[in-house]
Amino acid sequence: MNKRFSVLLPVMAGVTLLLAACSQSGSPGAAGVADTIKIGEFASLTGKEAAFGQSSHKGTLLAIEELNAAGGVLGKRIDFIYEDNRSSPGESATIAKKLITRDRVVALLGEVASGRSLEAAPIAQSSQVPMISPSSTNPKVTETGDYIFRVCFTDPFQGQLLSGFARQTLKAQKIAIFADVSAPYSMGLAQYFREPFVAGGGQVVAEQKYTGGDKDFKAQLTAIKAQNPDAIMVPGYYTDVGLIVAQARQLGIKVPMFGGDGWEAPELIQIAGTALEDTYYSTHFSPENSDPVVQKFVAAYKAKFNGETPDAMAALGYDSAMVLADAIRRAGTTDGPKLRDAIAATKGYAGVTGATTLDAQRNASKPAVIITVKDGKFKYLETVAP
Amino acid sequence: MTEFLQQLVNGLSLGAIYALIALGYTMVYGVLRFINFAHSDVFMVGAFAGYYIGRQLPPETLGGGLVALVGGMLACALLGVVIEKLAYRPLRGRSTLTVLITAIGVSLLLQNLGQRVFGANPRSFPQLFPSHEFHFDGMVISSAQLAVFIVTLLLLFALRWIVMSTRIGTAMRALSFNPTAASLVGINNDFVISCTFALGSALAGAGGILYALNYPSIDPLMGTLPGLKAFVAAVLGGIGNIPGAAAGGLLLGLIETVVVALGGSTYRDAVAFGVLILILLLRPGGLLGRLQTEKV
């Protein structure tokens, strides 16, 4: 249509060209012409979930550095542009808009927290810029649209494995759930835990809620204690979890407590210390894994970041960038739709968090590990296959 | 029954912290008829001062803990005097609204400066005092909870004594009745106001450290919510009234705990601020306050 009009009317031609230019500037194709490939990241580098954001960011940084040292991707250097959303709601959408329209990134990496990934996802989707979340586990994130991917397992899987763990390893029949009403991650995980657990004959004897950032949990914990559960599930993030575990132990609650990958941060141990004995959480990665791919990554990470041991968030941050680079190579272009198809076709990619295959819902299915805390240190307990 | 008693302890210890912060609000309001919204951020600075001082001292000793507590209070007293001198003194004699807005400005300044200087990441607060848990028939009270009770009571009586029985306290009351008349009889208004701010801010500092001892994760925005709750407590008890602030704090802590215990944990903050609206509608002078026609 446009073509015919442009032949007929020079004025129309001008308009069409303008439109074409606009649509091109909005699409990632424009950046493909330059001699670098621009990749954007939005992360919680400061604020409440900064420990996650920092780890994930460092993993991604390491991946980009390794890729560039090996000559870049498609013969082009990767230009890595990142922004901090301060762990606060409302920032991620603005940042995603800025990265896509101003910096013209070809793909977005982010976020750790599902709530903030959900803010940016609709923008990536409508601009046809693929977005890979390293560690948002809430299923809604990738349900936003066909441009949104993740390289980690989802909460339904995590909830199911935690329910099996509670029944088989902890031998718990009566469970209390204490979830963060302000975090989609926490509410989702609680729900995906409850369903298989109740279906398997277990009983949820108490359900209490808190709001992320609360400091006093004693009233809820006292109510939980009165129901005498065999174990307590706390599917929250580490800052709150640390205070919850410490206050629970103070109130004389001695039963095991467990949760998901939101627990994993050294800050958890700093806040709760010895109160963490007999607590467990599921996560994506253990640096104690003897796989050479993992050990090579652990060594490189330690060398770059002053001997720091990488955690699951760092490993997923690393994998998210590597899966993206792999897809760009296979696509041979950074054009949005083609890159999307290449990411969707990822099969058996040997990442540091295990073999990554993206399914039709754009989620990765991969094994999980259970970690416990012994003498103030995280300790590997077992691996659960998908 | 045990659950009920434990919830009572939970409520009272939460309330004691609100009471402690509310004392500072009410103190400044009682003398200057102005709500110092920067109070909750001085509270935050107190916690950070305790954090930095506490890290230099041997942990879990009574002496070290007291040094950190007094050090934090002194740091906050100094900060209070500086804030008053730089931000409020130039506005002396202007309408209360101007000063009120300036106070909100100072509050935002401290929050953002805090994020710049201390960093936005939450930190874990060191265990300053020797910690112990007391068990009574299934009920548990921690030493940190007891410390809040004791310090709040001590400061309540100390404050009452200062205001009622010392020369400076008499001067404060004179100033609150009539600043012009007070200066006519030879009271140095600037000095008395500085003292009021020093005292109020020291209370905020103590509150910050005790709060951090009970909930050992501190960040530059930690003051906002407890500060607002303490403001509700001060209004509930009758703002400007020292025993009223203490009573309001305890009552608010109990109300919040009851709401959570009944299963309404998501309504906790809504109920707390609902109380503020109700008290302003039904008894604007507060529970222990006298009603005065006042422009704020």
Describe the protein in words.
Chain A has 386 residues and is of the alpha/beta class. Chain A has two domains: 198 residues, Response regulator (Rossmann fold, 3-Layer(aba) Sandwich); 128 residues, Response regulator (Rossmann fold), CATH 3.40.50. In chain A, the strands form three sheets. Chain A has a seven-stranded mixed β-sheet, sandwiched between helices. A five-stranded parallel β-sheet of chain A has the order 2-1-3-4-5, sandwiched between helices. Chain A has a three-stranded antiparallel β-sheet with strand order 11-12-13, covered by helices on one side. Chain A is globular, with a radius of gyration of 22 Å. The N terminus of chain A is likely disordered. With 296 residues, chain B is mostly helical. Chain B has one domain: ABC transporter involved in vitamin B12 uptake, BtuC, CATH 1.10.3470. Chain B is built from eleven helices and four strands; from the N terminus they run ααααβββααααβααα. In chain B, β2 and β3 form a beta hairpin. In chain B, α1 packs parallel to α5, α6 packs across α8 and α10 crosses α11. The interface between A and B is medium-sized, with 32 and 36 residues.
Any chance you could write out the topology, listing elements then pairs?
The complex is a heterodimer of chains A (386) and B (296).
Chain A: H1 2-8, H2 10-26, H3 29-32, E1 36-43, H4 50-69, E2 77-84, H5 91-101, E3 107-109, H6 114-126, E4 131-133, H7 140-143, E5 148-150, H8 155-168, E6 174-180, H9 184-199, E7 203-210, H10 218-226, E8 231-233, H11 238-250, E9 257-259, H12 266-272, E10 279-283, H13 292-304, H14 312-331, H15 336-344, E11 349-351, E12 354-358, E13 364-365, E14 368-374, E15 377-384
Parallel strand pairs in A: 1-2, 1-3, 3-4, 4-5, 6-7, 6-8, 8-9, 9-10
Antiparallel strand pairs in A: 10-14, 11-12, 12-13, 14-15
Helix pairs in contact in A: 1-2, 4-14, 5-6, 8-9, 11-12, 14-15
Chain B: H1 2-32, H2 39-56, H3 62-88, H4 96-117, E1 123-124, E2 133-136, E3 139-142, H5 143-165, H6 167-177, H7 179-184, H8 189-214, E4 217-218, H9 224-237, H10 242-261, H11 268-282
Antiparallel strand pairs in B: 1-4, 2-3
Helix pairs in contact in B: 1-5, 1-8, 1-9, 1-10, 2-3, 2-4, 2-8, 2-9, 3-8, 5-6, 5-8, 6-8, 9-10, 9-11, 10-11
